[in-house]
Amino acid sequence: MVTQSQDLDLLLGSLGSIGEVAITVKELFSSLGVECNILELDQVDDGANVQEVLSEITNQRTVPNIFVNKIHMGGCDRTFQAHQSGLLQKLLQEDSTYDYDLIVIGGGSGGLACAQEAAILGKKVMVLDFVVPSPQGTSWGLGGTCVNVGCVPKKLMHQAALLGQALSDSRKFGWEYNQQVKHNWEIMTEAIQNHIGSLNWSYRLSLREKTVAYVNSYGEFVKHHKIKATNGKGQETCYTAAKFVIATGERPRYLGIQGDKEYCITSDDLFSLPYCPGKTLVVGASYVALECAGFLAGVGLDVTVMVRSILLRGFDQEMAEKVGSYMEQHGVKFLRKFIPVMVQQLEKGSPGKLKVVAKSTEGPETIEGIYNTVLLAIGRDSSTRKIGLEKIGVKINEKSGKIPVNDMEQTNVPYVYAVGDVLEGKLELTPVAIQAGKLLARRLFGGRLEKCDYINVPTTVFTPLEYGCCGLSEEKAIEVHKKENLEVYHTLFWPLEWTVAGRDNNTCYAKIICNKFDNNRVIGFHILGPNAGEVTQGFAAAMKCGLTKQLLDDTIGIHPTCGEVFTTLEITKSSGLDISQKGC
Ligand code: FAD
Ligand code: NAP
What we know:
Elements: H1 4-7, E1 8-13, H2 20-31, E2 36-40, H3 47-58, E3 66-68, E4 71-74, H4 76-85, H5 87-93, E5 100-105, H6 109-120, E6 125-128, H7 144-149, H8 151-170, H9 185-209, E7 213-215, E8 217-223, E9 226-231, E10 236-246, E11 250-252, H10 260-263, E12 265-266, H11 267-270, E13 280-283, H12 287-298, E14 303-307, H13 317-329, E15 333-336, E16 338-347, E17 353-360, E18 366-371, E19 373-376, E20 380-382, H14 389-392, E21 416-418, H15 430-445, E22 459-461, E23 467-471, H16 474-481, E24 486-493, H17 496-500, E25 508-515, E26 521-528, H18 532-544, H19 549-554
Bound molecules: flavin-adenine dinucleotide and NADP nicotinamide-adenine-dinucleotide phosphate.
NADP nicotinamide-adenine-dinucleotide phosphate binds at residues 255, 283-289, 291, 308-310, 313, 339, 377-380, 427-429, 459-462.
């Protein structure tokens, strides 16, 4: 228990003399009846060093430099502001039975958002983040999946592939170049990894600025309110907190067949692979598989996707098939209805040579193929089974490992919450994790009530031709609302940029699904086309506001864009009218 006399940990006078300001702060604390520990820098031998270290920790060079209950308060102005707002009094009264008000396990999208928001609200927060190396030995820095092995490197590699496409289009626009153009994997990867390194650093800095304690250790509950943190050297330290947030995310799944962990890579390894993967087999057919297959083919590699059942399960299947057929036209091979049963190394190397034996899901047929790299993208497992949840009674779904929570992200153990990819039945997307984490902190510590709205979350699959959507797939809409209650408007379209470039005029596609019995409200939005992510974002906001077909018709388009196509949709699917675009 921290005593009153320990409430205020440090009050620094200016070097040389105690400034008048410091005296004023002293008076403030004395008027509040708080005893402080005061370190007068001009009265200690190593005052200059202390000031140096403090300025590093707090990003503040000036004095007085004030900590309350080990939370950095700032200087004189901030202390008086905190007093005026009542925050200072709250901090002084804090229940200090525990080391922290909040410990967040997992420093990814959700965990960092929650921790930082809680710290902004004046709480004493710790984040534990530790990356267990992949079976191939890959690990990374602070920031979680999105920054290190997800959205960020994926989108940058997608961009590398789009630039390749732009290069070939550019000749039609008059660019002349004689040099043979080829792609260099090492240069791309190094540049992307450098960017990621800067993001890792900025996250650390941001935590420091907000006085969130960051510990690079693996967290595991040992008993109620107590966690054991084990660092890379195996050193263990225990910490206690009043509240916990689990934000440990997921890691790629393996097939469990001979040779998979030894010879295959996953998305955890791909983005920092120090050599070009060469001829690649991608196993899986959802977001990760198709996006990776897309950019690998886009940078010139020979790519095959092995599909167990359907493309992009859960997505509108008409759109999914269009995504696949565009990829196929652009050189990606699809092996449908096969699953690998064995991976064998034929040659070592960077890359080496692997033989893959696969069997049909429909009959006894088996096939073999030789590849340089096998990328497994068959889904991800929640990192919840080795964090001591059983010690404190937090329930997980035994089959999936996911954590069920109520609509306040609270687990069955009242002081333990969870956000992000570990949640059962929620979308696994970075902005979802961030929103949930931020709102959770505000509810826990800021007196706010807003809950995370998981409905109508937009998303985009960054395949060579992007697919953006929001709301229901056509299949789901029919299941929920019945076909006769729906009107589907759709069209193929030809982006202006594609005309001169001589690209196909009947590939890009836009579709909305409307509920006829709710004012023709748009309940499903789908676009396959360039920059689909950018287009979808704005329409998602409109859907939040209750977008109807009439409102779309009343909206004036921006010409010439892809997005404007939604303001002029006339043909219903039920009419069966031709939606193809004329022109060559
Ligand atoms: P994470 O970001 O995974 O963070 C969890 C952190 O906790 C990790 O750092 C982990 O090492 C750490 N950890 C785990 N256990 C412990 C422990 N016991 N102690 C300490 N630390 C621990 N989403 C999008 O919105 N857009 C995209 O374009 C997109 N692309 C993606 C591409 C790929 C290849 C992948 C794999 C995912 C992609 N996602 C995308 C999904 C997105 O990355 C996740 O939804 C998001 O990162 C989830 O955040 P989180 O906080 O739940 O977990
Ligand atoms: P996923 O959506 O769970 O898909 C797994 C894929 O692997 C499916 O195609 C599945 O086929 C296949 N599969 C599973 N087990 C298999 C096996 N034993 N053999 C062969 N194939 C198998 O996983 P994911 O693609 O890894 O994505 C995980 C999450 O990350 C997504 O839900 C998404 O939210 C997020 N993400 C988002 C983005 C983005 O926003 N752009 C990008 C990437 C990832 P079946 O259909 O037959 O089951």
